[in-house]
Design a protein that fits this description.
319 residues; alpha/beta; Rossmann fold; 10 helices; single chain; binds uridine-5'-diphosphate
Length: 319
């Protein structure tokens, strides 16, 4: 039975990974400092072959016994979170990645880094292929996340080349699904609660900026395919179906059958104008491609939001 460590294991993606790996027969240890993650994301895993350690991976990681896989997912990940936690974001991308790689080296474990489409910044090439070096403002407010992840990628490749650690890098594009925090500031977990309450959806800018949204179950499948592959270069995992944020807002209003309107608020600084993954590498090397349409993924996500205590009473009220 493989033994696996997931840093950030109480977060949105981390908790889905823990659940998936347990179902695949792994023994799973999750580490999280709970700065943006939550015990409620993992409490259903207690009683399985699962252990949670509350710890900050920028400090030190100590773990008894063998470890086969380390998946480094600890980091604030929504623009609002990393703007509020800029130094912690840089520390977990830099020092946290160093500690996690050091542990992988000591244990002879395979290491997988959660990187991001943000390494491409506000891209000048479209769609983004993995060999595009990106267009990042290092000193802008988003630079703390983008540069931390770019450093983390460079450090991962250095451990691979210099120490021979078996490393993988996944560049994660916008992902959504159950367990996103309703207040994390990202578009989908902002719009669904707004539409459920009948409030206006807060589109930033004129809503013409684009994103490509991947349902979480597809993403987790792609990450697992990469983990068990022998590929070391970065791989984009995301859903290439691109849309404007205005279209996304309209799709959510219609999926909920809400009476909400759209309001236009100022666009945050350095907000990328376009984003779409080229997934040729993932389809050819990992034989992976996303399966959920936006409508299917939104339906599951909306159902999850509706069962949260704060939305239960509202379900159906705005139809
Ligand atoms: N966005 C928006 N309203 C919101 C939250 C986000 O219009 O309440 C926009 C945001 O400016 C960006 C897009 O939606 O253009 C996706 O934002 P998100 O924070 O979900 O992800 P990221 O910017 O990291 O792609």
């Amino acid at each position: 039975m493989p033994r696996t460590l997931v840093t950030g294991g109480a977060g949105f993606l981390g908790s889905h990974l823990c659940e998936y790996l347990l179902a695949k027969g792994h023994e799973v240890v999750a580490i999280d400092n709970l700065s943006t993650g939550s015990i409620s994301n993992i409490e259903h895993l207690q009683g399985q072959n699962f252990r949670f350690i509350k710890n900050d991976v920028t400090e030190y990681i100590y773990l008894d016994g063998d470890i086969d896989y380390i998946l480094h997912f600890a980091s604030p990940a929504s623009p609002m979170d990393y703007l509020q936690l800029p130094i912690q974001t840089m520390k977990v991308g830099a020092m946290g990645t160093h500690k996690a790689l050091g542990l992988a080296l000591a244990k002879g474990a395979t290491f997988l880094l959660a990187s991001t489409s943000e390494v491409y910044g506000d891209p000048l090439e479209h769609p983004q292929r993995e060999d595009y070096w990106g267009h990042v403002n290092p000193v802008g407010p988003r630079g703390v996340y983008d540069e931390a992840k770019r450093f983390a990628e460079a450090l991962t490749m250095a451990y691979h080349r210099y120490h021979g650690v078996d490393t993988k890098i996944v560049r994660i594009f916008n992902t959504y699904g159950p367990r996103m925090r309703p207040n994390d500031g990202r578009a989908i977990p902002a719009f669904i609660p707004q539409a459920l309450r009948g409030e206006a959806l807060t589109v930033f800018g004129d809503g013409s900026q684009t994103r490509s949204f991947c349902y979480v179950d597809d993403l987790i499948e792609g990450i697992h395919s990469l983990l068990v592959s022998d590929y070391h270069e970065p791989v984009n995992i995301g859903n290439p179906t691109e849309m404007t944020i205005k279209e996304l807002a309209e799709a959510i209003i219609s999926a909920i059958g809400s009476s909400s309107k759209v309001v236009y608020n100022p666009l945050p600084q350095d907000d990328p104008k376009i984003r779409q993954p080229n997934i040729t590498r993932a389809t050819e090397i990992l034989k992976w491609q996303p399966r959920y349409t936006l409508q299917e993924g939104l339906a599951k996500t909306i159902d999850w939001f509706k069962q949260l205590p704060e939305f239960k009473a509202l379900a159906g009220a705005n139809r």
